[in-house]
Amino acid sequence: MIDRRSVSKAAARNLSWRLTRVGLFLLLAATAVIGRAPLVLALDQAPAGGTTDRAAQTSTAAPAARADDDTILAPIVDWIDRLETLSARFTQIGPDGGQTTGSLAIHRPGRLRLDYDPPSQILLIAPGDWRLIYYDASIRQVNVLPIGQTPLGVLLDRDLRLGREIEVVEIRRGAGEIAVTLVRRGEAEQGSVTLVFAESPVALRRWTVVDAQGLATHVVLEDVKIGVPLDPSLFHWRDPAIFGLPAPD
Question: Domain containing 29: what range?
């Protein structure tokens, strides 16, 4: 058993942002605000990857006046608070333009499962307690991170608390889109996630994670289902070091 106290802050930070590179922070931040309308972003609309800046991430949207920020964010926060379950297929476009696909399941509060399709053998599970588990079956390696030390701890919690652990650093609005850039409070140098979604009705269009090196990762969701029953066993975890393979139920 891993004691959460044994995970150093530095190690947690490094693993947190390594997970960002495989899209976890991205997926949770983005899928938590997805609306009921279908996604409209085609893969050829997403940037091919590489270094980026905020102007590139947020398209033609113009900065919103600070006085309007709460009004703009209100329907997004309301949707997150109402979200219980979500399942989807995803395509991830990495900094080098390479694409990977997989499946995502979320059951708020606290539970997540993210499976990458072969040949990748990566699985991420948040089973509903303090843990975020990263498992690479190709090398049979397990990493465990306290979920409260990641943005996921906020977004999987029962109530969204923007402005505490997660800070909104920019809101851009224009051409029927709203782009919101988020960072972990006090750790903006570690990277950011920018969400771009249709303004009315709320519908996620695209989002980008930029890591500490300025490398961008993009994700597109397909076949999104909101509010559907999810098998509880999806979020069970059995350590392969104890139970052998396969690790997940």
Answer: 6-226
